Fold each of these.
Amino acid sequence: MTPEASSPGVRIIGIEGIPEVRPGDDLAALILGAAERQGLALEDGDVLVVTQKIVSKAEGRIVDLATVEPGPFARQIAQQWEKDPRVVEVVLRETARIVRMDRGVMICETKHGFICANAGVDSSNVERLGTVSLLPEDPDRSADWLRGRIEEGLGVSVAVIITDTFGRPWREGHVNFAIGVAGMLPLLDYAGQNDPAGYELRVTQMAVADELAAAAELAQGKLDRLPAALVRGYAYPKGCGSARDLLRDPERDLFR
């Protein structure tokens, strides 16, 4: 059955009390423990939305800048734009392709295929100064692991979305996007259905995983230390999806 475009009664609940995450921590146990202390029981059909930062911390995707030796290109960029050459070097290591570089901003295509500033390398909300976080090696795999642990521990079927914050061309402000997906299809395809006037939709696809990621940020906030949230009441399209399904094929991308 195709879900409706909007589900009445959708709720977004921030999960409180998740402790500081460190490399090697059992992230599923930390999230489920915090939810239990909050009196929040996960239910069939919930969507767990988790920020990339705590996934990266648990997976040890943290780099101590004291261990980084920048190369000549990183030093050149850093000198031109007054940046830390060690950070630039880490960005270059995480980059498959530099899309645009100007005015001190590096827009990069990551090895995952995401196009974002600084290849997802981030110095905010890390445990200590002098370190940066990287995106998870395989965010879909991370999401699937979390989903499996929840189903194993609680016996409920949920979807999991891992998010990161990206800017958007032609619009100010940042939005949380899905970079890892498990237990759902990230796109809802309306092609072949008729609108109320009888017009047959041909190409309409809604990026529902991105919509859920952005909506969850409203309950998480950037400074509120709520890195996980539940979305309840949305009839998401079930299936074995991947965040890579959200990446546009270069042959159909008019802006490359």
Amino acid sequence: MPIKQRIMMISTHGYVAAEPELGKPDTGGQVVYVLELSKCLGRIGYQVDILTRRFEDQPRSEKLSQRVRVLRFPCGGAGFIPKETLCEHIPEWVANVRRFIEAKRLRYSFINSHYWDAGLAGQSLANKLNIPHLHTPHSIGSWKRDNMDGDPEDLERKYNFRKRIREEKVLYDECDGLVATTTQQRDILCNGEYDVPREKIHVVPPGYDDTRFFPVSRASRMTLKQELGLEGRLVLALGRMAHNKGYDLLIQAMPIVFKRIKDARLLLALGSTEPSSREREQIGELKELAVKLGVADRVIFRDYISDEELPDYYRIADVFALSSRYEPFGMTAVEAMACGTPTVITTEGGLWELLTWGLEAIYANPFDPEAFGHAICAVLQDSRITGQLAKYGSQKARARFTWTGVAQQILSHIERLPSRVSIEHDSTEEREADSETWLEEVCLLAT
């Protein structure tokens, strides 16, 4: 396979690594998205450099595959910096990246940045190096601000919304193209505070790894459930511990379920590998809520689930519930669907608009716990609905949300951007130079 030009993938915040520590601060679905998309582009034949921030004791470089590597550049000191304030240090990060690129004479076909902090970096590098820039917001500042509960001034201090939205507006105006993960995101970008031309936005849903997430037989599901020490009909929710995930709303929906389904249990697998004091406090609050509602004996709390165990947890569930207060997409729901697990999802996000109600999934508003509870009951009480959702949900996941499909859509959109974008093969001389300098570059980073 001929080696094509190099792609710069930028994701500056969180713990970006070949084996990401999912659940750590600012490390979740977006990191998975960037890694999986990069590996898929590598399999197609592109050289991909994932540029991120270096902090703590992380290595300067890391090889993911033959054609994909992570390159880490410092800024703002050696400690972790939350994504809400990392923007203050992006100019330093850009300067370090630019020096490296110019010293190594690297040429990139295009930049794909992820989230607004990386978008600031990507646009700065695009302007300085004359490289086309495709930005993927993942989350949009105005939408997040408008869908968060709490005192507006407290939220402003924590999330830096005014600066974020101002910088997003400039970024969206200057970049060559935008990737929205849902039609809802596209509509937000086109209207209100951003006013992005519709033709500049491409809707490409996130993907999942179909070599890991796939259905198994009912007998295998029952065996897995026994091996994990669980019984009864399980409603599963999992992910990092965050208020917007709506686990409290789900607990409030469960009394209706428990009243009608005598062997039903709610399994909450929450948190991270190294939970903070705030995370532990939030989980404690959820346990107190379960006690207050009189359902504590039927709510099972488990810690963070490793990436290796994740598919089997989806498979043991009788229903997967995504009850987020707001959710840009909802990748966990797609993974559950891919495993053949009936799924009930929030209408406070983008995924539900891509699915057919009653055929591929059921959706309800989690702010109406009674309605959300009835939606879960509908699945657990009717085997025909269960079978239909399991069959057509997994078919929809395979047809629409695999990483190969995502990569091809991204490349097709890049090819339609302004004429300065050119995705061509490297010359033989360039390919030989790349192969000769690969280890040299890594060694340079390690010194």
Amino acid sequence: MRRMVAGNWKMNMLADGAAQLAGELRRGAGEPGCELLVCPPATVLAAVAHALLGSVCQVGAQDCHAEASGAHTGDLAAPMLRDAGATHVILGHSERRANHGETDAMVLAKVRAATRAGLVPVVCVGETLAEREGGWAESVVAGQLAGSLPHGFGQSGMAGLVAYEPVWAIGTGRTPTEADIAAMHAAIRHRVGPSVRILYGGSVKPGNAAAILALPEVGGALVGGASLDARSFLAIAAACPA
């Protein structure tokens, strides 16, 4: 299964910066040994999709609403994101779960909406530091998977990815041990079956990417801060095993 390196730009980039970064990615990507995906803010999604049209880099969104249309001021429906050029959408990111109170049921509804619109959902799961230190990490992630993924996720007719992001490692510079990453990915694999790529996210950078991407069941990386720099992002992609 070919690996994917996905960049989550989060709430960063105005039009000029996004255009510059997209241009650098287009020129520098070459023939990567993995799939590339970038997920810019909604305000520049269409422009970035246009700038990367025909390149090796796909474009995704960072969230979507569970409804296809309606009186939901400030929200964006999955068909709108598809219309703007997105092929994928990140759902259930820990920052959405924590900052916006998103429950597994809400994430599940969004996954179904994304699938109906023809978007590939990238569903995020992960434990807090307290849950890790309490010995509940695997059970927490298992519960998130059970509540957030529809039946048949990742199988024929329902494409999808899972991204494991330990909450305490996002943007902190801290990462779990390689053994911990491998163990959690094996546990996720047991629950999602053989056809779902499982990305690792949480302070992935050029210096640790090769070791992480070589671990069993790690099907790629979901990259935060390092994805805002084209050289760093492409260096992570270059670290994917052949």
Amino acid sequence: MDTIVKSLKNGGVGVMPTDTLYGLVGSAYSPGAVERIYELRQRDKDKPCIVLISSVADLAAFGITLPPKLELHLPEFWPGTVSIIFPVPDEKFAYLHRGGKSLAFRLPQNKDLIAILKETGPLVAPSANIQGLPPARTVEEAEKYFATKVDFYQDGGELTADPSAIVRFEGDKMIVIRDGEALRGKKPSL
């Protein structure tokens, strides 16, 4: 784990398991790592990536203040496989929000991933695949996409979960951007 943390803190990019799929990860604080991820994935330059955090407190670094009602209901979603979109209007994060002035954040359940996030800080973590192709379910599948173009691979076995659900809130109303198993049974409002 130490070599992965060191690589990420030094602007490295690698493939590792999340609590959903394998992610192509890099520091959310490193514009160079973020751009490298876009190039490796051949990702649409206007499409922001999900950011993984180790605690709700990490949101403050992005200028996010939680509405009190959402803060009260956040334990229904986090830790878990729901990514929540928040406004991030600060232009210093334009390399992340790609001009959309909002980002999706997720507090994962995976304890090993949380331990890494506590060391590295927030990580950009789109699925480990070329845009438009199936997400890698194993390290071997990820290696077919990225070969030696990444700095590390962390093997977590075969991952069979669905991608995270993505939601945003307009006042008390939950808008589902991408559905997911974690939303089954959730109310559409706070």
